[in-house]
Amino acid sequence: MTPSLLLFAALVFPLASASPVKRQATSGLDADGDGLITYAEVSAAMSLHEALTALDRDGDGFIYLPQIIELWGTGDKFYELNTDGDDHLTFREIENGMTLQDFYEQFDFNGDGSLDAAEAYQMNFIYDTLNVPPSADNPLDSNGDGRISRLEVISHMTYDEVLMALDADGSQTLTPEELNILMGAATDQFMNDQDNNDDGEIDYQEAHSHRMSLIRIFGRLDLDNSNYLEAGEDAGILIVWDAILLMGGGSNPNPDGN
């Protein structure tokens, strides 16, 4: 099975062998087939520089604050590594301030030494980007202006496709870790708004409650209210779009934002 199909399986289908506590993360990174991603498996597959290259979707050699927030749910690492105080991190700043193992451990939210399905989402994306060349640098940027508009997003995908792409274990509920892939710093607010029964997860019905839609999601990702996703704001939606394509979706025929 190719890495793309393995990631597809991890994103779409429930993993029958996953335990109730530790959801498994089947992907091309899982060299020993145990359903979890270890640091040894990551270090055998990529260097830190290669991981950064995969994340640098526009090829400018910089990683921006919104991208760091999309990765880890907080901007703390951005400020820690940003030695010159500008609006981006260079690869050198990151590589001088952390190792590949440090990078990996940022995803291990429960600190148990391995990554399950939700924790491994970003690492799977990085691996897939390195091993399956994309068809275009930014497939959502239809007009080639270097940024993603609301129309470009809702013309390519539906809200339901976004929810399915985020649902790494196919449980039809979204955890904060899964939502963080797209929402980043807005994850907590989204949980507060949509988790109607306060169980710590959001099912698909809750995700649609309170008139939530893809257009409203776009607004939360547009941190500078420019009506475009740019300078790293698009990091999460690009990951989700890749997952939607792996599911065989995309190209929303009724781009109304639902």
TrEMBL record:
InterPro entries: EF-hand-dom_pair (IPR011992), EF_Hand_1_Ca_BS (IPR018247), EF_hand_dom (IPR002048). GO terms for molecular function: calcium ion binding. Pfam families: EF-hand_5. Residues 29-52 form the EF-hand domain. Residues 1-18 form the signal peptide. Keywords: Calcium, Signal. Gene3D superfamilies: EF-hand. This is EF-hand domain-containing protein. It comes from Branchiostoma floridae.
